[in-house]
Structure formats: structure tokens, C-alpha cells
């Protein structure tokens, strides 16, 4: 008998294709027979703003003095048709998130933080609450396929209307709010029985396509006497054509949401495999506006994975007028905070990875309707944290803009940028760093 | 703005000719009316299929429209009575909150879509998705309705004197459907239910509101509602998703 005890053995090697997460998902699927639902946006690594760099000033450009020379940040949205455009002090807005998916305290905190910084917040599927309206100096009212809670009184007391065609986490998908979060108040606002799973339709009930949307927008303008800016929000999928068609439909503002943008609850497979990254969408949307001669006339808001002032500056440099934040705003409020590490672990996850927002058991009291958990979030303190965070984003964006010699953040331009990767260079349509090569430019490859 | 009184106009009646008056002027004037206005009767001539006529009203007035209207006539209506002497385009009375809308002709798709309240009467037929996502409105259709009607209908009643197209009441919530004629097929989670006395009384009240009580036999109607099997997302229902 041969002794193999001294034969060298190879190190156990996990499959790159069947990695630990993939194996766990196969086991979960085999045990349950149903797909995985979670909140948040794409978690996979995709080309992003980190793959771009600013060049800053040099011999041919001079910078502005930090702290002394002015770098303006105000933004006006809705200048095309609306009698009363939205005037923001900073180019960062709060994306649509519903009361229902978020607690009332969380919505109040978003309103407080945004208002303190002179920017807008946005309702979500499920309608407008009085607290939200009361704490938001500028509130965008979403017009969604479900029309839950939609009514003309709220339409008239909104500052702008956002027709939601899609969102980055799930272009082409509807929504699901599980029964745990359908409390009496949430159900009442949505005209549904308490405790049932609430489905949100994936397309609007009374219009299909851009020709119909043009008529729908006309109706909304007529109802509101042409006062309110009307946004059209699309998930990043075909941003060139979607932006062009939104303009054709009469939008004042186009919102393009990349795949890193969050959702309250959607299938994991949908979030990770449908739609394109934010970086890939911005220049396509801007090009559509430029080709139509509508850049800066129809404003562009970009969202999906905005985390810091550099992301803001890069989105603006690529041609956006403003950005919107959702996930980052929730983190600023206290979502996924290590303070609740033990409780996240008890839920089978950890602080920073918790994404079962639809289950309503959020230890931070944000993505829940549980009365006891909700109490954990102090809306005043959380609102202050959000305001602080927005201030930092703005200061960081101004810092970069001054370094590029810009007296307004809107003066940032693609020529201020280079890319670290070929992919990012192609997507953003800026040169690969250290070269003058833009993949695809002039028909080259 | 050319909002002129007809020489023969009744007291309180205002005639608006959309051949010479912009729609914006009409809707703007209607929106400015106070709750106690004396201008309680408006007659609109030459609508010519214009969209969003009388949209966003919120006053106890009557608007008579002499001819066909386009999309979203009387959209989001509150309080007002809107009478269309002709056919109506897509989404008539969409998201109505209260009041009364009467289409004397046929209606296109999505009539009464997402509406929370009020009464919509259609003398002729209604096309596909009649009452889609309705949230409390009462709809009475004297003719027939198209496919996917009452899709995801949440609350209210849909009464049809004629026939219903395919997939009636798909993914229905708590709306109540009464159909006198045939139903081509029922959608997911929509079933025929027993017509008990309380349902006959409910149907009678809707027919009475529509001025039809006594003109049709309530015993000829069948009731449809939600089986409520899809109210909770479950693997056993996967074939329905």
C-alpha cells in the first residue's frame, strides 16, 4: 500500500465563477423556491466616477483662491415652461423615497436636512404626508404608475412634479412593499387593506409612450396652471433616446438614475443585471440635450451612487445640472450605522451590508414602520446630520471647481476630466489619463 | 380671453367657444371659480377632441361640452359635473376625486383610471382598461367594456350593462364588479362571487345614481371580486406572477 501522506497537496481553491455569494444564493433559492428581494442599488463593481480624475489648474489655467474667491452653487430647475421654477442653493437634491418604505421620522429628517441647505426633497410611491410637506421648503411630488395617494390638492401644493417612468435599480420593473410595512396609515394612504403585500405597477395606467406622455404632461400643466416644473425620471437604460423623448414630451427637467441608485425592494437579479451604470448614462443624456439644442434649457439631474463632492463635481463636469442622492442620504441619517452592529448581526447581516429594507426590521428606525424602531431616529438630529453631509458635498465640489478655475460649479466641463480606465474613457467620452485618446472619438477604436 | 355670454344664455351660463378661445383660458377661468360662484353653468362649444378639457376642476359647477373630447377630460375632477355630448378619449375622469362625469357617447381606454371617488357614466362602450387601478370611484357603463378592465382595481364599483372583455379584474384588490352580459375571461385572482342581498342593494344604489333603477333587472347581473390569493407574495402562487 502506497503512503500518500507526504504527497504535496494543492491549496483549496474556490471558483471565481461559483464564489461564496453565488453558492449561498443557489442554496437559498433551492430552499425557498423564490427569488431574493432586497433594497438598495447594484452592489457589483461597475465603472464609476472613481474612474475619472480632475486635471486641476496648471500653466494654461489658473485656479481660484479657496475660501476667498467665490464659487457659486445655485441651480434653477424648470426654466423651460414652468411659471415658478425651482431655485436651489446647492446642486444636490434628495431623490424620491416613499413614506411607507421609510418611516415618518426619516421623511421628516430628509425634509429638515434638505431645507436647511436650501435644496429639495421628493415624495415617493404612496403619496405626500403633511409632515413631509411641512418640513420641506421645496418638495417634488412624484407621479408614479400606481398613483397611490395621488390627488389634485397635493399636486397643487407641490413645488414640482416628477413623472416617474423608471428608476435605475429596476428599469422596466414595478415594486413590492411587503405586508409588514403596510400599517393602517400606509394602507389608508394607498387605499389598500392593512397588512397585504402592496404591488406597484411597472407602467402607467393611462398613457403609453412619448406621444401619450406629452398629452399627460399637458394635463398636469393644465391642472396646475402651468406653474410647476415637470420632471421626467428614467432609469438608465437607453439614456440618449430616453432623454430625447422626455424632451419631446415636454419635460422641464430630465432625471437619469443609474443602476447604483437604490430601491426599497426589488429582486436582486433585477438590480444587478438590468440597466447601466450612472457613469455610462451621463454623457449619453447630455449628448441628447446638446443634439436637440436643449442643454441647460432642459435641466438634467443625475443620480445613482453619488457619495462625495468629487462625484458631484464629475457629474456636473460631464454636463449635469444637479445630482440627487438617496442611499447616501439614508446613511447620513443613520442607516447601517455600526452603533447597531449587534442588532444587524442578529438579523443575519452586518452594519454596512444590511439591505432587507422591505422587511421593516431596520434597527436604525429608517426603513421601517415599526413604532418602537421608528422612535430610535430623532428627526431633528438626523436632519442636522443630513444638512452637515450636504454641506460637505457642496464644499468638496466647490474645492474641486476652484482648483479647476471655475467661479460656478456649472462651469466645470468634460475638458477638466481624464479617465483612469479605457472603459471609463469610452463611457464618459474623456481622454484616457496621460493620452489624448478617447475611445470611439472620430470613429477610431 | 373670449368667454362670452350667449345672447340666449340663461342666467349664470357662460359660453366658451374653443374654436376661438385657448384651452388655457378656459381651464384657467374654471380654476379661479370660488365655491360660491354664480357662474355655475358653462357650455363649451367646438371641443374638437382637445385634450385636458375641464381638467383639475374644484367647484360645484356644471360644464356641458358639445362634442367629442380628447385625452383626460375632467381629469382629477372634484365637485364638478362634466357632461360630454360626444365621445371621450383616453383617461376620461382619470383620478377623479368627487363629482360627476357623464359621457354621452363611447369612451376610449382607461376611463376612470385610478379615480378615488365620484360617479362616471358612459352611455356607450368603454375600451380597454376601464377602471384600471380605480380607488373608490363608481363607474357605470351602459354598453360593453374592453380587455384588462379593473386591472389592479383597489376600491369602488364597476357596473357594466353589456359584456366584459378578456382578463376582467386581473390582480384585483377590493373593487366590486357587476356585469350583466358575458365575461370573455377573468384575470388572475378574480372570481365570480355570490350575489347576496347586500350586493343587490349596493348595485341598486349605483343604478339609481345613474338613473337606471327600474330600467334593468338586477337579477341579470353577476358579481366578481378578488379571491385574495395573491395578497401575499408566496412561492405557491408562482404560476400567477
From TrEMBL, chain A:
Keyword annotations for this protein, in alphabetical order, are: Oxidoreductase
What does the record list as coiled-coil region(s)?
A: none
User: Which superkingdom does the taxonomy of this entry point to?
Assistant: Bacteria
One Pfam assignment: Glu_synthase
Q: InterPro entries from the entry? A: Aldolase_TIM, GltB, GltB_archl_type, Glu_synthdom
Residue span(s) of domain Glutamate synthase: 77-334, 358-406
Q: Which family does it belong to?
A: Belongs to the glutamate synthase family.
Q: What is this protein called?
A: Glutamate synthase domain-containing protein 2
Record organism:
Ancylobacter vacuolatus
TrEMBL record, chain B:
Q: Give the matching InterPro entries.
A: Glu_synth_asu_C_sf (IPR036485), Glu_synth_lsu_3 (IPR012061)
Give the SUPFAM superfamilies listed for this entry: Alpha subunit of glutamate synthase, C-terminal domain (SSF69336)
Please give the Gene3D superfamilies that the UniProt record associates with this protein.
Answer: Glutamate synthase, alpha subunit, C-terminal domain
- Which PANTHER family does this chain map to? TUNGSTEN FORMYLMETHANOFURAN DEHYDROGENASE, SUBUNIT C (FWDC) (PTHR39673), TUNGSTEN-CONTAINING FORMYLMETHANOFURAN DEHYDROGENASE 2 SUBUNIT C (PTHR39673:SF5)
Which named protein is this?
Glutamate synthase domain-containing protein 3
Species for this entry? Ancylobacter vacuolatus
Amino acid at each position: 500500500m502506497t503512503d500518500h501522506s507526504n504527497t504535496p497537496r494543492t491549496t483549496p481553491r474556490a471558483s471565481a465563477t461559483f464564489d461564496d455569494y453565488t453558492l449561498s444564493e443557489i442554496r437559498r433559492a433551492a430552499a425557498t423556491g423564490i427569488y431574493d428581494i432586497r433594497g438598495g442599488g447594484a452592489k457589483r463593481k461597475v465603472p464609476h466616477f472613481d474612474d475619472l480624475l480632475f486635471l486641476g489648474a496648471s500653466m494654461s489655467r489658473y485656479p481660484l483662491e479657496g475660501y476667498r474667491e467665490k464659487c457659486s452653487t445655485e441651480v434653477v430647475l424648470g426654466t423651460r415652461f414652468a411659471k415658478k421654477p425651482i431655485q436651489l442653493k446647492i446642486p444636490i437634491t434628495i431623490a424620491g423615497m416613499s413614506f411607507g418604505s421609510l418611516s415618518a421620522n426619516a421623511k421628516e429628517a430628509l425634509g429638515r436636512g434638505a431645507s436647511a441647505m436650501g435644496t429639495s426633497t421628493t415624495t415617493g410611491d404612496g403619496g405626500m404626508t403633511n409632515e413631509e410637506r411641512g418640513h420641506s421648503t421645496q418638495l417634488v411630488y412624484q407621479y408614479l404608475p400606481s398613483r397611490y395617494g395621488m390627488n389634485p390638492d397635493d399636486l397643487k401644493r407641490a413645488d414640482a412634479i416628477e413623472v416617474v417612468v423608471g428608476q435605475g435599480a429596476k428599469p422596466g420593473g414595478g415594486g413590492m412593499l411587503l405586508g409588514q410595512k403596510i400599517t393602517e396609515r400606509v394602507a389608508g394612504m394607498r387605499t389598500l387593506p392593512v397588512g397585504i403585500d402592496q404591488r406597484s405597477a411597472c407602467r402607467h395606467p393611462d398613457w403609453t409612450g412619448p406621444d401619450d406622455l406629452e398629452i399627460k404632461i399637458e394635463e398636469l400643466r393644465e391642472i396646475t396652471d402651468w406653474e410647476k416644473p415637470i420632471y421626467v425620471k428614467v432609469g438608465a437604460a437607453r439614456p440618449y433616446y430616453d432623454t430625447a423623448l422626455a424632451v419631446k414630451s415636454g419635460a422641464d427637467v430630465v432625471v437619469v438614475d443609474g443602476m447604483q441608485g437604490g430601491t426599497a425592494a426589488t429582486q436582486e437579479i433585477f438590480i444587478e443585471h438590468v440597466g447601466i451604470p450612472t457613469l455610462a448614462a451621463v454623457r449619453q443624456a447630455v449628448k441628447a440635450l446638446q443634439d436637440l439644442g436643449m442643454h441647460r434649457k432642459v435641466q438634467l439631474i443625475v443620480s445613482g451612487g453619488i457619495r462625495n463632492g468629487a462625484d458631484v463635481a464629475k457629474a456636473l463636469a460631464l454636463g449635469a445640472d444637479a445630482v440627487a442622492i438617496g442611499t447616501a442620504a439614508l446613511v447620513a441619517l443613520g442607516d447601517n450605522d455600526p452603533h447597531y452592529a449587534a442588532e444587524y448581526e442578529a438579523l443575519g447581516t452586518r452594519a454596512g451590508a444590511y439591505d432587507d429594507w422591505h422587511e421593516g426590521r431596520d434597527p436604525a428606525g429608517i426603513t421601517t414602520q415599526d413604532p418602537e424602531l421608528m422612535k430610535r431616529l430623532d428627526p431633528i438630529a438626523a436632519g442636522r446630520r443630513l444638512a452637515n453631509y450636504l454641506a460637505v458635498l457642496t464644499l468638496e465640489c466647490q474645492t474641486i471647481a476652484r482648483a479647476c478655475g471655475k467661479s460656478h460649479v456649472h462651469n466645470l466641463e468634460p475638458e477638466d476630466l481624464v479617465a483612469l480606465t479605457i472603459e471609463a474613457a469610452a463611457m464618459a467620452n474623456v481622454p484616457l489619463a496621460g493620452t489624448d485618446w478617447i475611445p470611439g472619438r472620430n470613429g477610431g477604436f | 380671453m373670449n368667454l362670452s355670454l350667449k345672447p340666449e344664455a340663461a342666467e349664470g351660463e357662460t359660453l366658451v367657444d374653443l374654436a376661438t378661445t385657448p384651452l388655457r383660458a378656459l381651464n384657467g377661468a374654471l380654476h379661479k371659480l370660488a365655491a360660491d360662484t354664480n357662474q355655475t353653468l358653462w357650455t363649451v362649444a367646438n371641443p374638437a377632441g382637445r385634450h385636458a378639457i375641464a381638467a383639475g376642476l374644484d367647484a360645484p359647477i356644471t360644464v356641458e361640452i358639445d362634442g367629442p373630447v380628447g385625452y383626460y377630460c375632467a381629469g382629477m375632477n372634484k365637485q364638478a359635473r362634466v357632461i360630454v355630448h360626444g365621445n371621450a378619449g383616453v383617461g376620461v375622469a382619470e383620478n377623479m376625486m368627487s363629482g360627476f362625469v357623464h359621457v354621452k357617447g363611447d369612451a376610449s381606454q382607461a376611463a376612470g383610471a385610478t379615480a378615488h371617488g365620484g360617479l362616471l357614466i358612459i352611455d356607450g362602450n368603454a375600451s380597454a382598461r376601464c377602471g384600471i387601478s380605480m380607488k373608490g370611484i363608481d363607474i357605470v357603463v351602459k354598453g360593453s367594456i374592453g380587455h384588462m378592465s379593473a386591472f389592479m382595481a383597489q376600491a369602488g364599483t364597476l357596473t357594466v350593462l353589456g359584456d366584459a372583455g378578456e382578463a376582467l379584474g386581473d390582480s384585483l384588490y377590493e373593487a366590486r364588479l357587476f356585469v350583466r352580459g358575458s365575461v370573455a375571461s377573468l384575470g388572475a385572482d378574480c372570481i365570480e362571487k355570490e350575489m347576496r342581498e347586500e350586493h343587490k342593494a349596493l348595485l341598486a344604489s349605483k343604478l339609481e345614481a345613474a338613473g337606471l333603477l327600474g330600467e334593468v333587472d338586477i337579477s341579470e347581473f353577476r358579481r366578481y371580486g378578488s379571491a385574495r390569493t395573491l395578497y401575499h407574495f408566496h412561492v405557491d402562487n408562482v404560476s400567477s406572477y
